[in-house]
Every structure is written in C-alpha cells, then in structure tokens.
Design a protein that fits this description.
The chain has 438 residues and is mostly helical. The protein has helices at residues 8-13, 17-49, 55-83, 92-110, 112-123, 130-163, 169-191, 196-227, 253-269, 271-275, 277-283, 288-316, 318-339, 343-364, 367-371, 377-405, 412-437.
Length: 438
Amino acid sequence: MARPVLPTAARQHWFSAGLLAVYALLLLGGLGWSLKERAIPDMFKVQLRQFSDNPVLLNSLLGALPALISMLVGPLVGAWSDRSRCRLGRHIPFLLACAPLISLSLVGLAYSRALGLQLWQLAGAAADEQNYYVLACMCLCWTSYSLFTIIGNALFIGLINELVPHAIIGRFFGVLRIVSLAVGVLFFYYCFGNELTSVAQSIVLGIAGAYLLSFLLVCYGIVRLRARGMLAPAAHQPALASGAVPADSHPDRWTYSLLFVAIAMGAICVLPANINSYHAIGQFAVDFRSYGRTTAAGYAVSILLAWPIGWLADRYHPVRIGFGAMLVYAVCMLAAWWLVTGPTSYLVWLFVHVVVAGVFLTGTASLLPLTMPRQQFSSLAALSAALTALLTVIFSMLLGYLLDRNGHDYRLVFLAAGLVALAGAGCWYRLLRTFRRR
C-alpha cells in the first residue's frame, strides 16, 4: 500500500475540460440525490408516526422492505446495465427511466393521506378502518419509491465509477458527501421543527421536482459531452489510488466474500439508530426541533471532516479508515446504551452517532470502485448489495420484534448497533490483513 507516483500527464488529465464538466454534472446530480436521501426517509417517518407506532411495521418498511427489493432486483439490473451497449452509454438509459418513476412515487407519497381517505370513502368502510386505508396507500407508494430509488442509487454510483478517475475518487466522494451533508444541515436546521407535519407535503413535492430536473440535466449533459468527444475512455484515466486492488488482479472469491460481508456489517450497524429515531425521541422526551438541530450540528461537523477523510482514503486506503471508524462506532454505541437516560444524554449520543457514522461512510465510499473492475462494477456491486439486503431483512425484523417484546425501550437500539459494529470491526480487521498480504 505504498503511496503511488503519478505522472504529470495523469494529474493534468484530472482537470481536463471534459472531466471538470463531468464533476460539475455529477455534483448537480448529487444535489438532487441528497435532497431525496436526506429528507424523504424522515418525511416518511413523520407521516407514518401519525398513523402507527408499531416498531415491527417501522423496521419492516424502512429496513426489511428496501433490503428485500435490493436483494431481488439489484443483481438483475446491475448485470443488465453492465452488458448494455448503446450510444447513450451503459447507465444513462436506466437513469433516464428511473428518475421520473422516483418522482412520481414521491408525488404519490405526498398525497397518500388524501388517496387513502378517498379509497376509504369509496369502500364505505367503518370509521375505525380509516387509518388502514391511509397506511395501505403510504406503504404502496413507499414500496414503489424504494424499488426505483434503490435501482437509481446503484446506477448513479456506477456512473461515478465509470467517469471519475480512480486516483481521486476518494476525494470526489468526499466532495459529494459535503454536498449531501450541507443539504442535511439546511433541512434539519430550517425545515425540521415541531410544525413539520404541516409542511411535509410541500417539501416532498418540491424534492420530487428537484430530483427529476437535476437528473435530466445530468443525463443530457453527459450525453452531449460524449457526443463532442470531450470524455476520454475509462482505460485512459489515471491509475488507481494508493493500495487499491487493480482491476486486472482479479481478487479471489474469499477476498470478495470478506469485502461484501464487511460492507454489509457497516451498513446494518447504523440502521437501529437511524430507523427508530422518531420513536426514541418520544421515549426520551426530545422535541422535533432539538432533534433536527442536533442532527444538523452532526452534519456540519461531518462537512468539516469530509475532505480530510476523503484524502486519507486516497492516501492510506479506505479499508484502514473503515476499520478504525467501525471500532470507534462500536465503543460509542455500547457507551450510549449504558449512559442514555434522558433528553440531553440522548442528544449527545445522537450527535456522536451522526459524526462517527459519517466518518465511516465517507472513508469507505470509494472502496468498491477501487476494488472491482469497471466493466463488472454494477454486477458485483449488486451482489454486495444483495448480501447487505439479506442481512438487513433478518436484522431489522429481529430488532422490530425485540423492541415490541421489551415494551418499546429504545435504548436497545444502541446495544444492537454496538454489538453489530463490534462484529463488523472484526470483519474489517480481517479484510485489512487480507489487503496487506495482497
């Protein structure tokens, strides 16, 4: 994992006119993507909480359902995308198809309450069944949204992997994280308050329009750059970052299996605190505004850390960052399980969760692009997502059941997160040793 020496021509190639335009377009797409990723899950949890406080339903819809969709659909779409050959490229046609469907699902989610009430009236059902019709519409729109957003997110990462030189991809993901976190800061600080339910519909509709517009511009811009010959083929891009496994080295099945398990453990250990946050603030008497501003503060700190962490990932390899961050996260979550007793302590450890999880996500964002061959990236990334999905389904359903059985004591989410992160740190350490041998 020695530091690479890159030729001057490669350094200049990072800043060619075509690539600078690509960076700008991808960051524009990242802005639309961030609006959706940062706000929509929270908007859905706010809507869902008005009609159900069942932890099994919550963990099923935000944990198991997206994971199940990813496991069933992701590998098929990834393989299809990798094998596609057309003048628009491998990923653009799929992104053009997904973007309108995602926005349409968001419009349905915004109007799910009105649709549910309309169906209830048409069915002539009893008054106590009204909530079931609203929940049914919400679940249907959320399922549609989850399906297309999982496909769209994977294709967007595949597009980044295809176009951004690997030698700086860690720093690019760091900048992308800055954009995403800045959106999170603005949303949680200015929009997330005690009156959130009254403006939720307008926010969701605005995000639907912004997401559609941003990705249409991204696809159009990249197609135009290719038509003008301003994008060099992937084979002519600079060499890989330090310590990366070259695309032609063909890591063995053991290395891939260990890599996919480590990524899966990192993904699921943050789910308990993320999914169950709204129910937890009810238990610990935290109001929406305090929750939103604490989350915004955590994102603000993560913005300051994003570029240095991206640089460290390029310099020392994402596996080292992943192992260190996972170990720190495990210790912090186990401490939170022991120390959270009221609103102040909950907000303190929520802040810690946001910052440390952000370090892990930023530091490991470039791991798969650096490790896997470009021509098979979407297929192999989909296999990784399928394993993550399988573990997520099992873990989220089990967690929902345990929360239901223990009387909805949401301190359990910190214990669950800490134990999974501790096991994950073991996987990342084993992966680090494997990469050192390579």
